[in-house]
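Note to self: user wants both folds in one dump. Writing first protein now.
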Amino acid sequence: MSSPHDVAVLVGSLRKESLNRKVANELIKLAPPSLKLHIVEIGDIPLFNQDWEMQAPQSVVDFKTAIRNAKGILFVTPEYNRSIPGVLKNAIDAASRPYGQSAWPGKPGAIVSASPSPMGGFGATHHLRQVLVSIGINAMAQPEVYIGQADKLFDEHGALNNDRTREFLQKFIDAFAQWIDRHVD
């Protein structure tokens, strides 16, 4: 068997007890042997400023390197005001610049959203899809993952306590592995 595909997982919430980080950690556990998922932190990326495009801060250089080295990108995000969190958009922008030197194009990607809301981040997912088109990510269309009422799905230790959700996440991560296989050289 060949080595597993490296997948960068970007969590759109910085909160210590983030529901989306809990979902990301569950997906890391459920990943098939063909994938190696790891969270790439986005909280230390400074607000994008075109002035530093020629000499980016080290945190941006490191982030772009992690994205370039990844074979796939998994976005796990909450919804803030019917869109994606600013910290996630900032990370996307930072790795897409300067013009012509984006780290994103051609990478297979997928989106998962989780929220205490019954709608599970529907608006954020669709806004993020628009952004992914513009940066050249080949986003998987199905299955769509909107985890509603996510605040009721984890125990006090952060472990998923819902078998139906776990089965659904397993189907999703298996489909994502196939998506990556189709799009990686």
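First done. Writing the second protein, which came from a different request thread.
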Amino acid sequence: MEHSHDGQGHDSLAARLAAVQQEIVAACQRVARDPADVTLIAVSKTFSWEEILPAYRLGIRHFGENYMQDALQKISLSATYPDLCWHFIGHLQRNKVRFWSSRFHLFHCLDSVALARLLQKKAEQDQVVTSVLLQVKLGDEVSKSGVLPAELPFFMEELAGFPRLSVGGLMTIPPFTVDPEQGRAYYQQLRNLRDRLVARGLADQRVFRHLSMGMSHDFVVAVEEGATMVRVGSAIFGPRQR
């Protein structure tokens, strides 16, 4: 018997997942977007591989992890599922870069040149290209990391010197607001930042296209504002247990 965290089993997981997917489709329809342009990342941090597997069986292929050891364990347990994409969506401490696995599909939180240098070195050792997004700090919360919008052009120029990093776009975690509508301005800002970097010739539109933004409480607003990836945990898996 497969259980989800709220104890109601597989059916409620299927129902929650279907509801999230329907909301993404409806949001796309409202703004004339193709739902295929939005990747749903199921945030699986703190959930075991056994708890994640039912979501895989329901068609989810993208999973988001925040903690390196936890993620590596799941990567190893999922080795027989080659179509599964692991996203690292948390802060990556520099002393953890040596554990970085080429099985990660994408790193969402590149926020410093120092971290970029370490990831470039690791990618050289592993003979791979590592896909990254730049974490942008919108809002003035001290606790959040990220590159300030004004620093993005300089950061992009620095990153041009790291050929083994493929920079695919921007990511943000705006200040939490109870009303999802209050997050809209942040998501508009991130989209405009991406478009300006492309317009200035600092990024190639074909590669630099992603906007990783929106979580369980506000992913609908994020999709309406152009999110290409939404990171949804509790709305799919139910309340988190630490």
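Dump finished. Worth passing along: Residues 10-30 form the longest helix (21 residues).
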